[in-house]
Design a protein that fits this description.
six-stranded mixed sheet; 20% strand; 2 domains; 449 residues; single chain; 16 strands; alpha+beta; Nucleoside Triphosphate Pyrophosphohydrolase
Length: 449
C-alpha cells in the first residue's frame, strides 16, 4: 500500500546531479517550477473548496536570488579545485560582497560566501505527460552537452529553494490564499502526490541548512550535486584549521563518506496486539495534546534488525515482551528525515505494563477493538495546529503549555488518534477493520520476521 508522503511522481535523475550543463538547462527552463520554503514551510495555496495545493514559482521569480544559470553549477561535482578561483559570485550573497569571483575574496569572505548561500535543491522532473517511449532512461553518461531536452524532453524540472532570509521575496509571493504553511498542520487536505514532493523538498532543505561544517575536519562545507551532497569548500585542501593551526587535507575529499550525503533515519512503529489479537497497545507522552494516543515507536539502533528493534522498543517503553513480529508498510516522514517501518507484534503477556523503564511515556494501555472503532467512526479527521505539532515534537516551551491534568484517556477509552497522514493511523485502522494480516496480491507485505 502507499502511505501519505509516499508516491513521489518525480523522476529524480540522480545520475545527472553532477552535470553542470544539464542542471543549467533545467534551472532556466520555461517549464521549471520552484517550491519556496520559509523555515521549512512550503508556499501553499488554499482553494475555495478548502483543498490545499503547493504554489510554485518560475525562474524569473527567483533568478535574482540564485544567479546566472550558466554560472550557478560550475564546479557542481566538487572535484576541480583549480577552477574555483574563477567561479563567479552569485545571488544576493555575491551582490553583498561586491566582487566578481571567488578568487577575489579573502579567506573569511570565502567562508562567509559559501556558508550563507541559499539552499537550492534539484528535486527531479515530472514526466507524467510524456509518452512511455519518451520517458528518460540512463542510456548514456552525462557529458558537457547534456541538457534537459536530451535527457528528458517532456520533463518539467522541479526545484526547492530556501527563501527564509529573503524578506522582499516572501512579501511579494504571499497574497490572499497563498502563504507559507507548516506541512503537518492541515496536511491531509493536500493531494498525496503534492505532499510527497513537499516531503522531499523539506527533508533536503533541512539537511542542507543543518549541515554547515565538515564532521571530519570542522571546516565549513558547501553544497554540490544540486543540493544532494556537501563537501569541504574548494581550495581548503590544507592550511589553517578551526584553531588557527595548520591541518592536513580533509580525508573526506577522497573516497565516499556517508556524512557527505543526505541521511535517512530508520524508525520502527508498531501495532502491538494482545495475545488473542483483540486489543492494541497505544501510548502517549506527557507533552502531547490531551487524550492523544499513538503506536509505540523508536529509532532503530546500530547493528539491529527490524524485529529486534520492535521487541526492544516495546519492552523499554511499556515493559511488554513481544514474540511474533511482522512488517506492514513504510512511510517517509520528513520531520526532519525519517523512514518509518510500520510493523506489528504480538505480546506474549499483556498483564503488566510499565512506563518507568525509560520514562518516555506518560501512559500506555491496551484498547479494545470496540473502543478503537468508536473513535474511528465518531471522530472528525484530526487537524494538527502549529501548537499541537510543537507538542508532538517536544519543542522547548511546548511542554509547559501541555494539557497534563486531563491528558490521559478516560475510563471508557475515549481518546484521539493520529491523523490519516500518519502511518500510525494506517496501522491502527487496518487492525481495527480486520485488514492488518489479510492483504491480497498487490497489498501490504505482512510477512513474519
Amino acid at each position: 500500500m502507499e502511505n501519505y508522503y509516499a508516491g513521489n511522481p518525480l523522476n529524480r535523475l540522480s545520475y545527472l546531479r553532477s552535470s553542470a550543463s544539464f542542471l543549467a538547462s533545467a534551472l532556466d527552463s520555461p517549464k521549471a517550477r520552484f517550491l519556496a520554503l520559509d523555515n521549512l514551510s512550503p508556499l501553499s495555496r488554499t482553494g475555495t473548496d478548502g483543498v490545499r495545493h503547493l504554489e510554485f514559482l518560475s525562474f524569473d521569480d527567483v533568478k535574482h536570488y540564485i544567479g546566472d544559470p550558466h554560472h550557478v553549477f560550475k564546479g557542481v561535482d566538487g572535484k576541480n579545485d583549480a577552477d574555483v578561483p574563477a567561479l563567479a559570485l552569485l545571488g544576493v550573497e555575491g551582490d553583498k560582497l561586491g566582487k566578481a569571483t571567488v578568487g577575489d575574496l579573502t579567506p573569511d569572505e570565502k567562508r562567509h560566501y559559501f556558508l550563507n548561500q541559499c539552499s537550492l535543491v534539484f528535486l527531479g522532473v515530472d514526466e507524467r505527460s510524456a509518452p512511455e517511449s519518451a520517458k528518460s532512461l540512463p542510456l548514456s553518461k552525462p557529458d558537457e552537452n547534456s541538457t534537459l531536452e536530451t535527457h528528458s524532453p517532456y520533463g518539467e524540472p522541479y526545484w526547492a529553494l530556501d527563501v527564509s532570509t529573503f524578506a522582499d521575496l516572501k512579501a511579494k509571493v504571499q497574497r490572499d490564499g497563498v502563504k507559507f504553511m507548516e506541512l503537518r498542520s492541515g496536511a491531509q487536505t493536500m493531494p498525496n502526490e503534492e505532499a510527497s514532493i513537499a516531503a522531499e523538498a523539506r527533508s533536503l532543505i533541512d539537511w542542507n541548512t543543518r549541515n554547515k561544517f565538515c564532521p571530519a575536519c570542522a571546516r565549513p562545507i558547501r553544497s554540490v550535486w544540486a543540493g544532494w551532497k556537501r563537501c569541504c569548500i574548494p581550495g581548503e585542501l590544507a592550511g589553517s584549521g578551526v584553531d588557527g593551526a595548520d591541518q592536513p587535507p580533509c580525508f573526506s575529499r577522497k573516497g565516499v563518506h556517508n556524512f557527505s550525503y543526505p541521511r535517512t533515519d530508520p524508525v520502527v512503529i508498531m501495532a502491538v496486539l494482545s495475545s488473542d489479537r483483540e486489543k492494541i497497545l497505544l501510548g502517549r507522552q506527557r507533552t502531547w495534546p490531551a487524550r492523544f494516543y499513538s503506536c509505540l515507536a523508536g529509532f532503530i539502533e546500530a547493528g539491529e534488525s527490524l524485529e529486534e528493534a520492535v521487541r526492544r522498543e516495546v519492552y523499554e517503553e511499556a515493559g511488554i515482551v513481544v514474540g511474533e513480529a511482522g512488517y506492514h508498510s513504510s512511510q517517509p516522514w520528513p520531520f526532519p528525515a525519517s523512514l518509518m517501518f510500520g510493523c506489528w507484534g504480538i505480546a506474549k503477556d499483556e498483564s503488566t505494563i510499565r512506563t518507568d523503564l525509560d520514562n518516555e511515556l506518560e501512559d500506555a494501555r491496551f484498547f479494545t477493538r470496540e473502543q478503537v472503532l468508536a473513535v474511528i467512526n465518531s471522530s472528525k479527521p484530526l487537524q494538527m495546529t502549529r501548537e499541537q505539532v510543537s507538542r508532538l515534537d517536544g519543542k522547548e516551551g511546548a511542554a509547559a503549555a501541555a494539557e497534563t491534568k486531563d491528558g490521559k484517556a478516560g475510563d471508557q477509552g475515549d481518546f484521539l488518534m493520529p491523523p490519516a497522514t500518519a502511518i500510525a493511523n494506517t496501522l491502527v485502522t487496518a487492525w481495527a477493520t480486520g485488514k492488518l494480516f489479510n492483504q491480497g496480491p498487490g497489498g501490504t507485505n505482512t510477512s513474519k520476521m
